[in-house]
Each structure stands twice: as structure tokens, then as C-alpha cells.
Amino acid sequence: MRFLVARCRVDYVGRLTAHLPEATRAIMVKADGSVLIHADGGSYKPLNWMSPPCAIRVSPGEADDDVEVWTVENKAGETLVITIHEILHSSEHELGVDPGLVKDGVEAHLQALLAAQVERLGEGWRLLRREWPTAIGPVDLMCRDASGLAVAVEIKRRAEIDGVEQLTRYLDLLNRDPLLAPVRGILAAQEIKPQARVLAQDRGIECVVLDYDAMRGHDDPATRLF
Amino acid sequence: MRFLVARCRVDYVGRLTAHLPEATRAIMVKADGSVLIHADGGSYKPLNWMSPPCAIRVSPGEADDDVEVWTVENKAGETLVITIHEILHSSEHELGVDPGLVKDGVEAHLQALLAAQVERLGEGWRLLRREWPTAIGPVDLMCRDASGLAVAVEIKRRAEIDGVEQLTRYLDLLNRDPLLAPVRGILAAQEIKPQARVLAQDRGIECVVLDYDAMRGHDDPATRLF
DNA sequence: ACATCTATGTCGTAC
DNA sequence: GTACGACGTAGATGT
User: Fold this and answer.
1) Domain span at residue B49?
2) For residue B1, which residues of chain A lie inside 8 Å, CB to CB?
């Protein structure tokens, strides 16, 4: 990895056209050729960047006050032109391959927990299966309620309007299956946006708020994902 | 801005729990207190990070081979603990405030261009207005075709299935208005995903692919956004 | 502050 | 490789 601090202008031409006027910025060049241009603030997104894999060509500056011009191009034909006026810092570092991030607490985990605790949806409920296959994608959980009726459950960390649309498409399809119909729908999430709740209600879809900590408290270690 | 290269472990506890085992990584600390942990590859997203505003507390390491432990905490109570084993590089840089990025070619520009060239949708078409207000949000363009029928146009850079859903909701609503009904729908985009095209067709929504360069060629500078 | 929508989204994963 | 959904989505914009 190369890290430099330089006074520069930047021009991106690709999915859109964008320009950075001259200023002092941090430039990170990674081993895979990707380039990040960072300002001294503004969270993790760079002002401008080029995604790997890409090639960097360095040429001498044309104007008197240009030190060098970098042309970075990737496979998709997008280009990033960095015109460097002054290099204030430059260093090279060996990092090696990263062992990578270990995560917990995402939707897959919520699904595993709820699959093991379907009684949270209603007494006497049974799980038919997780990832119930349909032509337009898998339904997170397919259950039968105490009276034996089929229920499709869509699980989200935060349920928004598109989650309701997704479940609606599943229900439309599932209700055409005479072996399954009538199929009810449940939207289960840690957090349900008001608009999503309204739309769900309008379509006869029940909303259930999941308490992740409580569910983890009842967790059976044998069914744990991690 | 401070930039360092260090052998470190990282633990994030917040919206989820995540852990980075010991390895050599690049650490960027910005003026606003935000911290980015980068590997030597993998595009612009850091392996781990903390968004501003946040406070950094540095304490001596407890184990023999820990140089120091950074505890970064933000307003939301999320924490990032960086256990540093060895510092391989450290430098400090003054960048100043960045003038910021200038963009072109986004959806707003597409909308402005198409509004000025509604004849691309059909001969004799008229624009009623951009951002036609409805109870569930504005319709990008509302037009009348040559025969005087109303047409709602949804504009996207890349049209996917959610764009069809969005337009469908608008059409459902608009068709309840006796002054407007019947209202047709058009999905206009630089690129239309196959699934979106199929769903649109199924719902009687017409798809139009926009040629951005051709539209810009016919651009009237007076109506230009930038 | 809250809700909604866009993004050069990026990233993983199933097909 | 393409398509699709999740994301610690982040960021902008309007109420």
C-alpha cells in the first residue's frame, strides 16, 4: 500500500462525471490497484475513488505547476485522472493478506433464532421449513399456525415498504398453490417503519416486532449459527 | 489527519458485533475523530470504522505485547476497540477543509433533460409538470400523450423491480382521481433490468431506454441544471 | 428530529 | 458472469 498526501485535482468519468478542485488530500493506493481520495472528515466514503481491478499510468505534468498526472482505469472503462501539484508526504507499506471480519447479529441470525422459537409468532405453531423455495425466491420461514393454516414469514432487521412488497409477491404466488392456500403473511422485524406497517395492514399482513436480546436469551446453543 | 500502519486487533460493538483478528492494517484518524481501518485491498469500504462525531481514549496495553488500546465511542454508544501490538508507521498531516465534489449525470439531470424532451416518449406529447405531487410522493413527470391521455413517468438511472413497484403504487392512486383517470405508466431509464422489464410488462407499464449522451446532445443550455 | 429516496452505492451469494 | 437482496448501508432532502 502506498499512502500520500498531496495538493491535487481529480476528475472521474464513468457511471457519472465528477470533479474535485485543487486542494490537499490523502491518497491511498492499495495492492490491487484501487485508489481512494480522502478528505480530513466525512466518514468512511472517499471523496472519489476507483474500484479494483485497475491499472495506474503515471505521466509527467504538462503545466508548469503539475508534478505528475495519474490516469487510473478499471475493467469497466471508468477513469480517474489525478493531477498532482505537490507531494507533501509519500510512504510505502507492506500489509499482507487480511484474515477478514467476523460478524454477528445480522438477518441470518435473526432467522435462525426465530426458526427455533416459532412459538413467538403464536402458540402451537410449527415450522415447515426455513428458506421455503418459490419461483421468485425463497420465503424466509414457512409455518403452520395452531389451526393448520399456512403462514409465510418475512424477516428483516428493519422492515420498510419494500419488505411488504416482497412478502406480497410471495403471498400472491403461494396462494395460487391449491395445496397451500390460503396462506397468511407475517412481517417480523426488530424495527418496523410506520409506512411499512400501514401498507402491511392494508394488505392483511400482520406485523411482529422481534426482541433480539430476548430471543438470544432463549437461544439453544445447538442451533446457533456462530 | 493521522495515518498509521500497525499490527492490531479490532472489536466493534454497536448495531452488530464484529471482530478483526490480529494483522497489519492501515489506520486513518480524521480531524472529526472518525476512524477507518483499511486492509491492502477490497475497494473503498474499510474493514471496520467509527463514524463521527466520536471520542478516542488511548490507554496503555494490559498484556505484555500490547503497545496501547484505543477505545473509540460515538454519540449512539457504539464502540470500536483497537488493540495495537506494534506501530510500523505513524504520521500527522494538515489537510484543511475540502472544497467538495461537483457531480453530473445523476437522476435529477436525467429528469431535467427528459422534461425538456418529452417528445422522446412520443410525438405530440406535452409535459404537465415535473415532480407531480401525490399523497405518497411526487411522480417524476406527468404528461399527456397526443390523444390527451395522462401518463405518469418514473425516471431511474437503472430501473429495477422496486422502480416498477413504486410506479405501480402511483398509478393505483392516480387512477382513483376521476379528473385524471385513466393514467398510463412509463418506466424510463438508462438501463432496465430484465426482471423489472418483465414485471412492468405484466402490469401494462411501458419501458423506455434513455440515451443519456443523445439527450445531452439535444440539451438546451437554458434548461441545464449545472 | 423524522421519514423517504438515491447511490460511481458495496458486498455477499445463489444461479 | 449475472441477478438479487442485505447493509453497522451513508448521505441528501423535504416535512
Assistant:
1) 2-92
2) 5, 26, 38, 40
